[in-house]
Amino acid sequence: MKTRIGRGLLAAALFAVAAFAHAQAFPNKTVRIVVPQTPGGASDTLARVVATKLGAHWNQPVVVENRAGAGGNIGMEVVAKSPADGYTLLMSYVGTHAINGALYSNLPFDPEKDFAAVATLATLPFVAVVNPNLPVKTMGELAELAKKQSVSYGSAGNGSVNHLLGEMFNAAAGVKMLHIPYRGAAPAMTDLVGGQIQVVFTSMPSVAGFIRNGSLRAVAVTSAKRAAAFGDIPTIAESGYPGFDVNPWFGLFAPAGTPAAVISKLNADINEVLRAPDVVEKFTAAGAEPYLTTPAQFGAVLKDDIAKWSKVVRDSGAKVD
């Protein structure tokens, strides 16, 4: 009996040593970060900053691969079905990871069970932007205009964060702006600049250039506090709608079953990168704020947000079959 117990303990110890050694050697080849959105958006921008820094830290290539489509589900499925070895990571955010499960009827993966939380990267407010010809400079003025005439807002599609933010503002302001869904954020921005729609709630990095060159007017950010790099843009909460606070997180996931030691090493290295002054500077310039967590903390955040956003989706009536 004692011999069997001793052998079991020895086997467990050897397994632990092997797992530790594997994690210490990680990575010894190219790491791929799959971004399930098109280039130029918030997920893509943050992923490329972190990929460059991790590549230098590891002395191994870290490539960013855009696999957009189906509201992010195509890229998510790619990662969910990849080997669970840490060499394929998913760049995700609250929109795809906490919302899609409630929005889509038949996902080929489970957003919670088929992924392992690795590390959050940042929180990043969305911003309400309008065509500069629209005679509004505050959210209060936007609400008053929407009460007098038809005002339309564009989104990346039914159930997207852009869509749900518009519905949340409709509820807060007691108005009914008309939702115009697009196949992605880019065509919505094109029509906003062209004057075909009046408002879009979008991520700061995707619209910063338009704000700076005057093509669009920023009215308010969705977070509880102002963005450091855009301190002149007020929050929706301080614009007369207290309690309005949406500050989406962005982070990295691995396929479920990735060894805990590899997850731990990834988390430690990513958090080290997020503390680097040049990374903080680049994130801040994009309107983002570095957000450091452990894998367990990130998993808890995801669980809470799935419950929160599922209710928002239900209340909005949005559904994609």
What report would you give on this structure?
By secondary structure, the chain is an alpha/beta fold. Helix content is 46%, strand content 18%. It contains 11 helices and 11 strands. The strands form 2 sheets. Strands 2-1-3-10-4-11 form a 6-stranded mixed sheet, with helices on both faces. The chain has a 5-stranded mixed sheet with strand order 7-6-8-5-9. Helix 2 (42-58) links the parallel strand 1 (31-35) and strand 2. Helix 1 (2-25) packs parallel to helix 9, helix 2 crosses helix 9 and helix 4 (94-103) crosses helix 11 (295-316). The radius of gyration is 21 Å and the shape is globular. The N and C termini lie far apart (57 Å). The mean pLDDT is 92.
How many DSSP E strands? Answer: 11
Average pLDDT across residues? 92
Order of helices and strands: HEHEHEHEEHEHEHEHEEHHEH
Largest sheet, strands/sense/barrel: 6 strands, mixed
Number of helices: 11
Strand content range: 15-25%
Could you estimate the helical fraction of the residues in percent? 40-55%
Structural class: alpha/beta
Report Rg.
21 Å
* Approximate shape: globular
Lateral strand order in the biggest sheet: 2-1-3-10-4-11
Q: Spans with pLDDT under 50 lasting ≥5 residues?
A: none
N- to C-terminal distance: 57 Å
